[in-house]
Amino acid sequence: MLDTFLEVYKSLMRNKMRSLATGFAVSSGLFLVIVLQGASNGLIHSFEYNLGNLPYDAVNIYGGQTTIPFEGIKDGRYIRLDERDVNMTRRNFSHIINDVLPVVRRDGAKVSFRGKYCDSSIKGVYPQYSKAQAVRMIKGRFINNVDVSQSRKVVVIDEKTVETLFGKSIMPVGQVINAGGFSYRVIGVYKADSRYRDSEMYAPYSTVSTIYDKGKFVDQITMRLRDMKSEEEMDSFIVDYVRASSKIHSFSPDDVNALWIWNQAQDNMKMKKVTGILNTSFWILGLLTMISGVLGVSNIMLISVKERTREFGIRRAIGARPWSIIRMVMLESVVVTAFFGYLGMFFGIVFCEWMDVVYGNRTMDMGFASTKYFVNPTVDLSTCVTATVIIIIAGALAGFFPARKSVGIKPVDALRA
């Protein structure tokens, strides 16, 4: 085996420039595969980051403003959701909805603790809200059914509020804070979304509704959908929901602005579709580039084999088997493609790490929130393994076909070459 590798080495060294040129084509192809995949992952990760920790099956309904006159009622009327919307949602859409959760809120609440102040909003929620909106608890607990049934004045706050009011020396859970003119006991701390500047606190639904005299009105309806297969099915659900709500509040069923709908489930569908297209497109571009390099290897091997036709004829004449010649040529091709392919992969990974350092942590300030447009543009191990397997198989094929053609020539004819 060692003799075979030495022979391959000597063969490659006889044509150094040709070997380098061939290797450069392979190396640049694999380099582009890695870089394009890294760029694709950077965009995909930015989509995921900007969606935050939001669940992929939630839809939030808010009251909007009418833009179409209806049955003698002028446009410009504000729609305010109430308990009828909650009951309608549970009654009409129970076959596609898991949870229907009304939410009430008080915005701009002044929060204080021992002379320290901050602004926040207080949301009155049910216990299931933590799953519907993927609230990640760090300390303590979330709202439970007993809190709601007894209208307890308890609250769950975020990390930002803890840092402002308590610092690092005071344990927040168990402390009593003043929020919006009322005292609440802190029962838990949840992980804040670093993208948003505003903070939110969660209290029992019954408590907030009673304290701020919400009555039958609700500020938001959060629902969790069952598995929907397509965007068309999702669009049909939204149309049906707006039509059902229009009968309650007497607005045109075609007035899409009467309700403001934040459809996180549909956003997730679109994100998966876009990321799938991006991933496929970059893979195709990278593979086409890599194939062009492999075709270059095949052409070079064809020239090399043609130049060595007499040599192969002599080998055949003294008893060498055809497979031994084919194996040697294939080995030369695999050595070139694998060695230079790994070089291309190495420099591609280095380039992706450079992109991550330079562009991966840049944020865009949108006022109320910040967003990233390029996050972690790196490739995973599976991509490198896949590219390696492809390049080795392609290299073997690039050497196999020219070698098979050469051993098909009769030894007598090869000696005349």
Keywords:
single chain, 417 residues, alpha+beta, ten-stranded mixed β-sheet, two-stranded antiparallel ribbon, 54% helix
Indicate the topology.
Elements: H1 2-14, H2 16-51, E1 58-63, H3 83-92, E2 97-113, E3 116-125, H4 129-132, E4 137-140, H5 145-149, E5 154-158, H6 159-165, E6 176-179, E7 182-190, E8 200-204, H7 205-211, E9 220-225, H8 231-249, E10 259-263, H9 264-307, H10 309-317, H11 322-359, E11 363-365, E12 370-372, H12 381-407, H13 411-416
Parallel strand pairs: 3-8, 5-7
Antiparallel strand pairs: 1-9, 1-10, 2-3, 2-6, 2-9, 4-7, 6-7, 11-12
Helix pairs in contact: 1-11, 2-9, 2-11, 2-12, 3-8, 9-11, 9-12, 11-12
Outline of this structure?
The chain has 13 helices and twelve strands. Helices cover 54% and strands 18% of the residues.
Explain what the structure shows.
This protein has 417 residues and is of the alpha+beta class. The protein has 13 helices and twelve strands. It has helices at residues 2-14, 16-51, 83-92, 129-132, 145-149, 159-165, 205-211, 231-249, 264-307, 309-317, 322-359, 381-407, 411-416; strands at residues 58-63, 97-113, 116-125, 137-140, 154-158, 176-179, 182-190, 200-204, 220-225, 259-263, 363-365, 370-372. Strands 1, 2, 3, 4, 5, 6, 7, 8, 9 and 10 form a ten-stranded mixed beta sheet that branches. A two-stranded antiparallel sheet has the order 11-12. Helix 2 (16-51) runs antiparallel to helix 12, helix 3 packs across helix 8 and helix 11 runs antiparallel to helix 12. It is elongated. The two termini are 29 Å apart. 32% of the residues are buried. The mean pLDDT is 81.
